[in-house]
């Protein structure tokens, strides 16, 4: 069985690196754990770091977090589905909201459960995913402030999640100004301007972050050390906290070109014949992982720089790798290792067919 490993020391290093930076700038932050898909052994590793705030997009994951660490502040990071409102009030201390009718229902449920539910109102800043339009904001807040059982603790925005719109200093200044308008209009002091996600960190490192941004939600930068502006690893951070180990279950020297009448495969792909490869052979390995677990484009082969290895493709449960002349003398039962891109790790973590382990 393929195994996904998490390296504890590397995770701790990345967390401490980010925590130090945020503390130096008086910024509150929480860890986004939706990547972990509620995997308890990995959630416990995150909580052991001393995390005080966890963000997730699944109520079942927040429930698992509350069962392990009831004092950690849990944040539901998308607008609440109406059918899930009782569970959101029970397991999420905070939620991101954009719909007035939904917030009214949260208010009613909070009163039933004798709770004060905190919300962050998300504002549309150009990426066109969730968010209240700016010209509707004052009227929106006026109605929300009237609701019992609801405490507005922030306003926020998302970037780069749908259309790839990147955060800029000007956009974040605009977000900060919205807070100032609301504070002045209603004689309030909203604690958080939550404009920071992993994609915003480069602005912080480059001293371009407006002072009004005082809250971050971080997942990808923590788990992958990735600078989303440059696609490079942040200096001083690890990009290989996760490692996928796969076993070779077949290894045979085969022709490099298929033979017979060709049609689309089950994934809808058509193979293009390269006539120059007819008559040539190569060693091919089949690995014990497939499309059901991960899209091959999110796999990053580890330590293959000096070998003739390449990923050919995958079916539902098997991945095919070209070994060339197999100069490394791989054999059935040997292990090939991969690092993962974010969406690849998300798929693997959501697969019940992949074993998960912590490397101490």
From TrEMBL:
One annotated GO molecular function: pyridoxal phosphate binding
Pfam family, any one: Ala_racemase_N
UniProt keyword terms in alphabetical order: Isomerase, Pyridoxal phosphate
Keyword Signal: no
Reported cofactor(s): pyridoxal 5'-phosphate
Ranges of residues in domain Alanine racemase N-terminal: 9-225
One GO CC term, this protein: cytosol
Superkingdom as given in the UniProt entry: Bacteria
Keyword DNA damage attached: no
PANTHER family: ALANINE RACEMASE, LYSINE RACEMASE
Record-given protein name: Alanine/ornithine racemase family PLP-dependent enzyme
Native source species: Pontibacter diazotrophicus
């Amino acid at each position: 069985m393929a195994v996904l490993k998490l390296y504890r020391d590397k995770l701790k290093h990345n967390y401490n690196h980010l925590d130090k930076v945020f503390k130096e700038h008086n910024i509150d932050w929480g860890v986004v754990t939706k990547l972990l898909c509620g995997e308890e052994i990995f959630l416990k590793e995150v909580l052991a770091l001393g995390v005080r705030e966890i963000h997730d997009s699944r109520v079942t994951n927040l429930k698992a977090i509350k069962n392990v660490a009831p004092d950690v502040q849990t944040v539901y990071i998308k607008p609440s589905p109406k059918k899930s409102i009782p569970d959101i009030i029970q397991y999420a201390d905070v939620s991101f909201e954009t719909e007035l009718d939904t917030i009214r229902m949260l208010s009613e449920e909070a009163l039933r459960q004798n709770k004060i539910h905190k919300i962050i109102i998300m504002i549309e800043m150009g990426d066109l995913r969730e968010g209240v339009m700016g010209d509707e904001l004052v009227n929106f807040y006026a109605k929300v402030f009237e609701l019992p059982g609801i405490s507005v603790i922030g306003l926020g925005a998302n970037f780069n999640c749908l259309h790839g719109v990147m955060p800029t200093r000007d956009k974040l200044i605009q977000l900060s100004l919205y807070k100032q308008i609301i504070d002045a209009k209603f004689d309030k002091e909203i604690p958080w301007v939550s404009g920071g996600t992993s994609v915003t960190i480069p602005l912080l490192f480059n001293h371009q972050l407006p002072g009004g941004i005082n809250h971050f939600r971080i997942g990808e930068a923590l788990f992958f050390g990735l600078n989303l502006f440059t696609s490079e690893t942040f200096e001083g951070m690890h990009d290989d906290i996760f490692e996928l180990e796969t076993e070779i279950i077949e290894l045979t020297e085969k022709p490099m070109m298929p033979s017979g009448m060709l049609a689309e495969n089950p994934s809808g792909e058509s193979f293009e014949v390269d006539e120059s490869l007819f008559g040539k052979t190569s060693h091919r390995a089949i690995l014990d992982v497939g499309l059901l677990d991960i899209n091959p484009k999110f796999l990053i082969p580890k330590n293959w720089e000096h070998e003739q290895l390449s990923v050919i493709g995958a079916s539902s449960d098997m991945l095919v790798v070209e070994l060339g002349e197999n100069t490394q003398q791989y054999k059935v039962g040997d292990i090939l290792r991969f690092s993962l891109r974010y969406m690849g790790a998300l798929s693997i973590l959501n697969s019940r067919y992949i074993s998960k382990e912590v490397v101490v």
